[in-house]
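It is worth pausing here to work through a concrete case rather than discussing structure prediction in the abstract. The textbook approach is simple: state the sequence, then state the predicted structure, then interpret. We follow exactly that order.
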Amino acid sequence: MTSCITYIVADNFLKFNGKIGFVLPQTLFKSKGGGDGFRRFEIENNFYFNVISVDDMVSLQPFDASNKTSVFIAKKSKTPNKYPVKYYKWTKNKGYTANSRHTLEIISANVNIEEQVAIPIEKGKPSSPWLSGEQSVVNKLHKLVGTSHYRARKGVDTSLNQVFWVKAIQAKGKLVQVHNCQSRGRTKVRQRTDIWVEKESLYPVLRGQNFTRWKYEIDLDQILLYDVNTGKPLDRSAANKIFPKAVKYFSTSDYVPLLEKRAIYQKHLSQYPNYSCFDIGPYSFSEFKVVWKALASRMQSCVVSRHEKRIIIPDHNVMMIPLDDEKEAFYLAGILNSRLATLFVTSYVEWFFSTHILEYFQVPKFNNKVKLHNLICDLSTKAHKETDLTNLKALEKELDKAVDALFDYL
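Step two, the predicted structure:
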């Protein structure tokens, strides 16, 4: 709505060559999809916006809130916008908290404003998200842009974790006693401790809080009644034969309406049993996965496979690349954890590292006959096993050099 108002105000109240300034969400300049229309900077057969500058105040948080603030200044013109445009990055000093009552003098003494430039990340597509940074850095990063051989996926979206996520209490033969987990979800769900389900119905769940760069841990399972080959939910008849205890659990009288009222269920899954989930397919059950945090200040990736011989499946806030080759997995994790990957991603993404990263970051396909590919794989493998921080930092430095050489970023 704010982006529409900007155009409406300029159309009705601004004369040509007149300037306009608006406080806008920074996502209009950096997000894929949502800001594309705004970044055209044009009302067809009417006028263009020539961008004078954008001030990125996301770090500053000037309005006592966590909204992503930017200031957009442009001129109404009869000619298209030209790139690069001036992009000012505001960074607050350590320990400083902005307050809307602070004077300009106080704020100026506590922030650093770096003059950068911004250009569309996709060549030939001016409406694509902006790549920003120092001019020399942006020029080099722009050469890395291209479609990757790899496709990223989101983890499983249950939309009712309080039912699907469980904690094991004890095991007896092929059965496990569990209790369902309470979470921060708004839906209130009764917690049960008398649940027995089939062990084969349980898959270790990987949450964002469970891992960092190179390392992960598992503390919860999720109940998934799925065919691992097709990635589709088992029909109720088949599920009853294989997992009768788990089916009975999902038939709990006060759980049934909650499961069937899920928005994703009503929109996408109503033809399936009520234990069906979203963003799940045969790829979810792949042997190896390279995962990274969606919410982070830098790329944090690692390789996951099995926990206690069971396939690990990430939740929907974790991005993943499904793979069958372990060496290829370590190679990819090494690239994603490199300094260059973080530099590239944060140059156009402020906070949510979604699957679209691989739509821009042109990662070469792994080839075990290429010496540099094998070097990155070996260094990444060692980093996953290393426990000494000093040794790990040394490995990461070697890895950064290898990845720079791979992309010819020298």
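Step three, interpretation. The chain has 14 helices and 21 strands. The chain has a mean pLDDT of 92.
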